[in-house]
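[step 3/7] fold_predict: job queued, chain A
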Amino acid sequence: MRQVSLQVANTKAGRDKDGQDSTRQIHILTTRTGLTSGEVIYRMGSRWRQENYSCYARMHFDLDSHDAYATTDDDPDRMVPNHAKEKAHRRLLAARAGYERSMARTDAALLDATHPPAPGQTVLITNQTHDALTADLRSAEADLDRAQGAHRAVPTRLPLDQVNPGQQVLDTQAKLITHAIRIAAFNIDTALARAVRVQTNYARADDLTRQALTASGDIDPHDGFLTVRLDPCPPGAPPPRSPNCANT
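[step 4/7] structure written:
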């Protein structure tokens, strides 16, 4: 693996004791050896951009909503976790716990049987006595061996058709189309807000762009381009209060 470190301004900490702007380091670990340091940093930033979109879209674009109720058959050959493996694991844990309790009881019984007798007395421990003291431990050990064998015999993953035959899933085509529209709306919203903030230094660029996108306008498809013209907003109009204003 390789490490790429980036030093950036620490906007939350402010200035240090010498009056200089404090900095912080971002360390990125990657196995991609064919990328330059700049490409690694850009791709890590792209990851955060995707997470920011998901967070924003859940609040403003109803990202988790059901866009269609049509269903299709799930892939019957898709490998999924085998629930029987978890049950076998619980039985294995119970058998191991029972074995440990039996071992503790057997050790206590053997210690008591071999305790030095009082002066003038003798103690005789035969094979039959030893077998009687360790019978519970041998039974618990046999149960543990059977539980371990049964756990190993159960496959961890199985085809979906064996675990849950006839499984249905929501149709993904409508979901993909609506996601593409939502992503386009998000990119337009952020691009407009960035342009307003850069060109005018207006602090509430996000509210302004949302207000503009909820206003009336016109759509003109021409020569392979889709041109959207927004009507001017009335001067002094307050920004919309609803957080779902970017849905339109």
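[step 5/7] annotate
Helices lie at 37-60, 83-113, 127-153, 160-163, 172-200, 205-213.
The first strand starts at residue 2 and ends at 9.
exit 0
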